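Reopening: structure tokens for the adenosine-5'-triphosphate complex, inputs below.
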Amino acid sequence: MPFRKPPLESAARRPETVRMPVLGIETSCDETACAVYDATRGLLAHRLHSQVDLHARYGGVVPELASRDHVARIAPLVRETLAASGIGFGDLDGIAYTAGPGLIGALMVGAAVAAGIASAHGLPLIPVHHMEGHLLAPMLETPAPQFPFTALLVSGGHTMLIAVEGLGRYELLGESLDDAVGEAFDKTAKLLGLPYPGGPHLARLAERGQPDVFRFPRPMTDRPGLDFSFSGLKTAVLVALPRAEGEQARADLARGFEEAVTDTLVIKCGRALVQTGHRTLIVAGGVGANLRLRAKLRALAADKGFTAFFPRAEFCTDNAAMIACAGSARLIEGRKPDGPLFTTPRWPLADLRAPGVAA
Amino acid sequence: MLARFEIAGRSHTQQMLPMVHGLMAEASLSFAQLDGFVCGIGPGSFAGVRIGVGFVKGLALSLDRPVVGISSLTMLAQAALDEGALRVIASIDARMNEIYVGAFEADASGLCRSMGPLRVMPPDQFREDAAGPWHAVGTGWGTYETTMRQGVTGDVLHVDGAALPRAQAALKLALPEFAAGRTLAADDLAPLYLRDKVALTLEEQVQLRASRN
Ligand SMILES: Nc1ncnc2c1ncn2[C@@H]1O[C@H](COP(=O)(O)OP(=O)(O)OP(=O)(O)O)[C@@H](O)[C@H]1O
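Re-run output (same inputs, fresh job):
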């Protein structure tokens, strides 16, 4: 049942312009984040606390520790974000939270806090799909890309090519059959003895490496289709590892790996654009911060005459700005916070529909 | 006082909001009319406790109200004191062959006061040497009564191994705290986990592997 705000109250508070500030909360994995986004004024404030240091000692994200840290950090973070946005809880028009996919215990923390705020102020509660947040992250930039576009979504948990015809109209073109590309970066980095999460460390090491000393396969590029597979690449790195003695050889190996991964992504992006006929490619997700990937996609764009669009690095990785933005786009789907609290560890992106359209 | 209770198992996410909103409707109150919030902080199911704590944080933070956190063991003990017990050993089954446990007695005004730290431990390591007679309550007793009795020096008069923490008891314990100003801000409300070792660091993983070889 869609939520309707009492008309009198909102009219009293909003005499002239239509402002619909939405608070967004993100706790799906190892960042606690909060943001306020307004349909007319854009992003008003955003804050993030990364748990990277907490999990580094364990060699990866420990779900229970992630949940504990979210619950410890969230209240001051929300308070700070709201103060920075210059509005009060009473000025909000909705509370958005990441409902999935992600670590279920971590998701529940954000959902519960969101439900508390929504209950307290009689506001609609808006469950947001984390990957839709990533997909819409480029909308936080000016100028924002226009629909339709093709999206490359590359993060620690996902590798996807998606045709985006409009809000909530997503067609999965291809995805990884095994490891996500960020995961491949992280695992390779771990093999090289780099700290967790290894992606950015590996990228830094690769800068000092030669591109052709280690030559790795470009998985699944020799046949048609838009799916990916990165687990074989990890095995190839493992086999090559004994030859990577010394600092320069390690850098060469890192470079060889990065070249193989980015080439693979770029080849598939090119194919996807041919298939969709779109003139815009957007890149989202943490691996979208990778500079070599950006450079290669820009070169491809220049060559083929399409536009490559990258959100700034802090909106590539997990953040709440994208959740508040997606929540704002789906404000009409907000629900009264008196029903079951929706969270889900798995949630296929293709299950989404345009706002207000029943599945 | 209006109260609702449900054994939710893993379905707190399903039940909590309808229950709380239903209770508020029954009392004809809005959340903004409340002066403060009382929240169960565990020990118990980590995820379950966090749902309650998260929700209360959201309420208290956005309405700028004080909070009082009450442990599940204290709630159990208070209910037993209210039924005439003098001293109570409250214990909750912590799974993984451990119990959460604490010993309590009534203060002059009949409110539950803890006689020592709340702990998590294997039931066969539990010892309580203070004088009884004791009332024993909670699922820890339900699962490990025979073992736990061996750790108690005084008499154990009465065992209720099915008792569960109730919000009424929390409210009774919290009201004097509000009156005395012993409250928390939303930021400082924290679950009481007791079990703090939940993962091995890389170093510990290496040591464990070495010790196995
Ligand atoms: N410069 C970089 N080069 C390569 N990989 C990078 C770079 N920066 C970050 N990454 C990788 O991005 C991933 C983190 O991205 P993000 O925060 O979007 O994903 P996640 O939260 O792990 O997964 P998801 O969003 O799918 O749940 C990590 O695997 C990290 O190593």
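Chain A has a mean pLDDT of 93. Chain A has two domains: 7-136+318-351, 146-310. Marking as resolved unless the reporter disagrees.
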